[in-house]
Each structure stands twice: as structure tokens, then as C-alpha cells.
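cache lookup: miss for this entity combination. No prior model stored, computing from scratch. Input as submitted by user K.M.:
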Amino acid sequence: MSDLNFDYALLIPEFILVGTAILIIMADLFRKELGLGRLVLPAIAALGTIAAGAASLAYIDDVDDFANVIAIDNYTTFFRVLFTVVLLVVVVSGYEYVERNIRHTGEFYALLLLSTVGAIYMAGARELLTAYISIELLSFSLYVAVSLAKTNPRSAEAGLKYVLLGGVASAMLLYGMSLIYGTAGSTQYSEIAAAFSGGTSEYGFALLLGLVLLIAGLGFKASAVPFHMWTPDAYEGAPLPITAYLSATSKAATFALLLRIFAGPLLPVIDQWQWMMATIAVMTMVGGNLIALQQTNIKRLLAYSSIGQVGYMLMAITTISDASASALLVHVAGYLITNLAVFSAVIAFHNRTGKEELDDFAGLAETNPYLAMVLTAGMFSLAGMPLLAGFVTKFILFQAAASGGYLWLATVAVIASTISLYYYLQVIRRMYLLEPARGESGRWRLSPAGYIATGTLTAGVFLVGIYAGPLFTVADRAARVLALS
Amino acid sequence: MIPLENFLLLSAVLFAFGFYGVLARRSAIQILMAVELMLAAVSINLVAFAAYTDADRFTGIVFAVFVITVAAAEVGLALGIVLRIYRERATANVDEASTLKW
């Protein structure tokens, strides 16, 4: 039995998040007795998140792997910081929306904080059971959060679809994990890698089936085509801040987990999964972007757009190498900033108008030029226009794939990316070329929180697009932990 | 001693039954029961592997205990959501929960 003498201080960020979640539930319980104002809960959530983010920054370069269960290293820290930033953005830009449209605000913030803990441990997991528990901590919180909307009857329906399909995906993932455990004789990543590098010919079929089911289960969580059916429904039915959160943390956490597994324990059997990953990547890039062309609702449009982005990220897993791992981290960071900028603008728009169809954005450039500018920058960045974050991150992602011997895959990605420009432009066309609906042509302003969130994120989109050097350095240091050749 | 293959075969059949149930059944409750079958197959797999290939540690058995616990939580959560739908529409049929187009 190994001794339990670990560096527990490295887990402080998660302690803070869980503690804040419990504090919020208690405060919500005694809200009336204590006479708490409506801003108290989001304020506690935001402060806890900031504290957790600051605490994770304090432990850069410290390493402990807790007997091969959870590794706290630069890779985990990278995602920790990303996830706390996402959480902060969602809380700040979403609190007005939450106030109006959510049934139980206390539970809402507590669930968000807990799901972030799950997401962080997905990035840190070095063992299959830990990975599974972290996935479920994230997913369960989101199943509930999706169905929390007060006024929207589609919310519960979206939650039902999400929880049923999520349950099936978890079962497939677990069956795959059990087969990998059986063939490798261990659930620890390092021991699996050691077992597989010694040759796997004796359990060919069991291993192949295990890989198929593992990829199917994780593909569902990442909403890769053909496992994406839940994505547009959950996005449309969920409260908007949760949609933003789903498209950001849930996706990034799944890729953090995918990268750790496929760059570590499953790297020796790359010949058996590389073709599956390439197939799914192509289907996801092309499928997501083609279906997005027909969408008329902004949430569904962004759902399919995020599916397309997942395709580009899967390409980096396919061509796994040191360069593509670090490119994937850069792209994930750039995508999160851009997507959150778009979503915080959509939330601000919804706060004012209560609408979310594409046609409702007609003439936004006249009624609120600032918001139209933010959305335009975000959409162009998602499409990959130069000077914006999306261009830089996509460029190095495609370049890593091409130099990794997958030029055809990078070509498909470029074509898919060109298709995506069409539907992003559709939004921009409505805002700038169409007249506002009758009776809605008056100018309006955002709330201060709306200005802070959209302003900071848009600045981030431009900053990454123009001066991405520091992000590359950070991603490089995080990817080096994976010790790829 | 019973060969390991028998356990794996049993679990594969059970998993296939569960997956068929998910695809064929239309009631949310029945789908949940089918998912439970799939998770039972996983538990059999894990315990069998633990007994045959990993006998000096308990990894597989511990894993199975966790799977059972998490599955219970999942059913509780899903039933809560089903109940909410049922209150609103007096049906737990996934075909009729179709305000959202696929």
C-alpha cells in the first residue's frame, strides 16, 4: 500500500470551488431569513471562482500525481485557469438572465461550480475510474442545469433527451473502459501504456471493440457526428448561460480528457484507432458545418457551429504529436474566448429583446452598433478571419495536421471552414443590411455587466489574433507534460 | 473453473439487449431500464476481469461498485426530469416530447 503523503495543497482550487458551491446552497436556503439581495449569490459565485483561478495560478510548475490517480501538472493548471475564466464569464454575463428565467438560482450556481470541478478533474485524471467519475460529475450537473429554465417548456424536454442519450453514451464508454481494463490488466494510464507497448496481438478483437465503444462514448460527450443528435436540442432548450457553458467547458473538458488518453495509454495502439478518429473528424467537420447552413435559431446555429469546431479539434487528436497537442490547446483557448464573446453578446441581446431567432437580429447595427460589432468580430473569428483569434488558432491547428502527414484531412478542414463562413455571414448580413423590425428601431444600451463581459472578451479575440505569442508559450509548456515525441 | 469467455459472452448479450431496448422502446422509463441492463453488463465485465486477470488487486470490483452507485444517481436524476415532463404533458413518451425538431 502506498502511503498517503501527497501535496494536498495542490487541490486547493477545487476545495475552494466545492466550498463556494456549498456556501451558495446554504445562503440560498436562508435567503429570506438573512435578507440577502438578489446580487449576493452571483457575487459569491464570482468571488469563489476568482479565488480558485488565482489559487491555481499559484501552483504553476508544481507536480504531484496522487499515486497515479489525478495528476496536477501544467496541463491540468492550463485547463483549470481556462475553466475558471469560463465560469466567471458565464456568471458575470448571465446573472441578469438567471435572475429572470431560472427557477432555482442557488442550485444553478452551485451546479455550475461543481461541474467545473468535474471538468478540471477530467483534465487531470490519470486513471479510468477517476476519468469516469469526473465525466459524470460534469454531465450530471449539466443534465439538471439544462432543465432548470422557468418559462421555457422546451427546457425539460431538452433535459430529458440529454439525460437519456447521455446515459446510453456513458454505458458505452464504460463498456469500452471495462474491455480496456480487461486487456491491459489495469486502469492506470501509465500501466495501460506499459501493457500495450508490449504488443496487443492476443486480444485483438476485445481491444478493438473497447476502442470503438470508448470513442463512441467520448464522441457523444464531445458531440462529434454521428453522436451529435442531443447537441442542438440541449442547446436550444437550455437557459442561455448554460448553452454557453455547454459549448465551452463541456467541450474543452472532453478534449482535455481525450488528449490525455489518446496521447498516453492508447498511443501504443494508435494504428487501431487513428482511422476511426480520422473518419469521425471528417464527418464532424463536414456534417456540422453543412447542417448549420439551414438553421434559423441562433442557439441551434451556434450548436452546429460548435460541432464543426469539434471536428477541427478531433483532427488534432488524429494526427497526434507534440505540435498538434500544443496546437489543440491553443485552438481550445481561442475557441473558448471567441465562443464566449458571441454568447455573452447573445445573452445581452436576449436580456433586452427576449428573442433568439436569426431574423430577430435584423437591423441590430442600427439599434445597437456596439453589440453588432461584438457579434461580427466573434462570427468572423469563428469562421477564421485574419487579425482575429480564430485565424491564428485554426492556422496552427491545420498546419500541425498537414505537417503530421494528414494533408488531405487539413484540406477537408479548410473546405469545411470555408463553408462555415456562409452561415456566419448570414448573421452579419441580417445585422447590417436589413432594417430593424417595425417599432423596434430605437437605440438601446447594454447593462454594465454586459459591457464588461463583451468588451473584455472581444478585446481577447483581437489580442489573441494579433499577439498570440504568450498563448503559444503557455500551451507549449502545458503540452510538454504529455511527453509526446 | 468456468472460463472467462462465458462471463464475457453473458455480458455482451446483456449489453446488446440493453442497446436494443434503448433503440426500440419509446417510453422514457423503459429506456432507463434498458440503460440499466447495459450498466449491469459493464459490472459483470469488470468483476469477471478483476477475478481472472487482476486477482491481486480490487480495481475492477471497486470500479463496479462505483458504476452501480453512479447508475443509481443517474436514474434518480432522470426520473426527476421525467416526472417534470409528465406533470406538464401527462406523458413520458419520448416520441411525444418533440417540440424540438431533431
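stored under new cache key. The two ends of chain A are 33 Å apart (CA to CA).
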